């Protein structure tokens, strides 16, 4: 991943694109103060280098009648086969939006959406706990969403560039 060094213009492109992925190239170039051709070239380079993984529409769970959001902590058998089987299975469960392997008492954390408690119960009892290798599952339900963003923080990259610029200025 990331074989070339990004600069402040690339960071501006990343900042704008992750907030507004549907901008046309002309709109993006205006937002980052760059002409359209170099802007498109930089955008394509950021995509090919893996800085941009893809583009997506963010759907409303409530509008789609997915009002029950849960975080499920899963403990599994410690064998390599159990981990591999679980990883393969979780990829097939559409209710699970993300799955993280963790340190500590819990092996995995699932983030999932369901239409209601009946659908959640079916998933936990008939799918998750029935999966070979799963030893335990504990759930927490979201009561209120205080923050939900897909935007990654980029400030630390700007700060690193400023430090490099200051060092180069002192050396000159």
UniProtKB/TrEMBL annotation:
Classification via Gene3D superfamilies: 3.30.70.920, Winged helix-like DNA-binding domain superfamily/Winged helix DNA-binding domain
GO CC, one annotated term: cytosol
Segments forming domain HTH asnC-type: 6-69
Alphabetical keyword list: DNA-binding, Transcription, Transcription regulation
Gene Ontology molecular function: sequence-specific DNA binding
InterPro entries: ArsR-like_HTH, AsnC-type_HTH_dom, Dimeric_a/b-barrel, Tscrpt_reg_AsnC-like, Tscrpt_reg_AsnC/Lrp_C, WH-like_DNA-bd_sf, WH_DNA-bd_sf
Example of a GO biological process term: regulation of DNA-templated transcription
SUPFAM superfamilies: Dimeric alpha+beta barrel (SSF54909), Winged helix' DNA-binding domain (SSF46785)
Name listed for the protein in its UniProt record: Leucine-responsive regulatory protein
Organism: Neisseria bacilliformis ATCC BAA-1200
Lineage, broadest ranks: Bacteria, Pseudomonadati, Pseudomonadota, Betaproteobacteria, Neisseriales
Gene designation: lrp
């Amino acid at each position: 991943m990331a074989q070339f060094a990004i600069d402040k213009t690339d960071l501006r492109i990343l900042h704008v694109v992750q907030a507004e992925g549907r901008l046309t190239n002309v709109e993006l170039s205006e937002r980052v103060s760059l002409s359209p051709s170099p802007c498109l070239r930089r955008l394509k380079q950021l995509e090919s280098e893996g800085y941009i993984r893809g583009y997506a529409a963010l759907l409303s769970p409530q509008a789609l009648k997915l009002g029950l959001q849960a975080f499920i902590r899963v403990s599994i058998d410690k064998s390599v086969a159990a981990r591999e089987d679980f990883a393969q299975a979780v990829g097939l469960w559409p209710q699970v939006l993300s799955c993280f392997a963790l340190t500590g008492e819990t092996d995995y954390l699932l983030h999932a959406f369901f239409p209601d408690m009946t659908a959640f119960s079916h998933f936990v009892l008939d799918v998750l706990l029935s999966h070979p290798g799963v030893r335990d599952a504990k759930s927490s339900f979201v009561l209120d969403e205080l923050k939900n963003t897909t935007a990654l923080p980029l400030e630390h990259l700007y700060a690193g560039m400023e430090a490099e610029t200051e060092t180069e200025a002192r050396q000159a």
